Design the sequence.
């Protein structure tokens, strides 16, 4: 476990809280950037639930990741409105342009390309987010412009 002290603090805070699993997982991801699989047994023991239950919740919610993210996280919305407005084609374009498959982190650690299920911009689909900042009406050209700007900013 990468940060046992942090995990112990989080478990102490939420150990006796009804429905404490989600707060534990959120705090852990906020602190470490991800929820390490090696933390599941300690979480299960502290909350008196099964390891399978911890695993089930982590895998159910798309927001939880079990590996560290890249330096930049680019999310492409995969929900209905964005799909209807071309997010599948945009996703394929993003994979080619960034050199990483959806749901993966590029080998150099520079970028993670993630699916997201609605950014609240449905009226202006398709939508993406770059490091939590959302952008609407993103076609391939706009995606290229946004990621070029991101690449330039990350070089400085
Ligand atoms: S469906 Fe994509 S922002 Fe809502």
Sequence:
């Amino acid at each position: 476990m990468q940060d046992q002290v942090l995990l112990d603090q989080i478990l102490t805070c939420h150990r006796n809280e009804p429905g404490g699993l989600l707060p534990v997982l959120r705090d852990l991801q906020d602190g470490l950037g991800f929820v390490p699989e090696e933390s599941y047994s300690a979480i299960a023991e502290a909350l008196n639930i099964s390891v399978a239950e911890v695993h089930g919740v982590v895998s159910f919610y798309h927001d939880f990741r079990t590996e560290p993210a890249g330096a930049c996280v680019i999310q492409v919305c995969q929900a209905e409105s964005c799909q209807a407005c071309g997010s599948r084609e945009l996703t394929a374009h993003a994979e080619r342009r960034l050199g990483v498959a959806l749901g993966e982190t590029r080998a150099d650690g520079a970028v993670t390309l993630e699916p997201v299920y609605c950014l609240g911009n449905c009226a202006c689909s398709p939508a993406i987010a770059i490091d939590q900042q959302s952008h609407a009406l993103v076609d391939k050209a706009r995606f290229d412009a946004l990621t070029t700007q991101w690449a330039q900013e990350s070089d400085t």
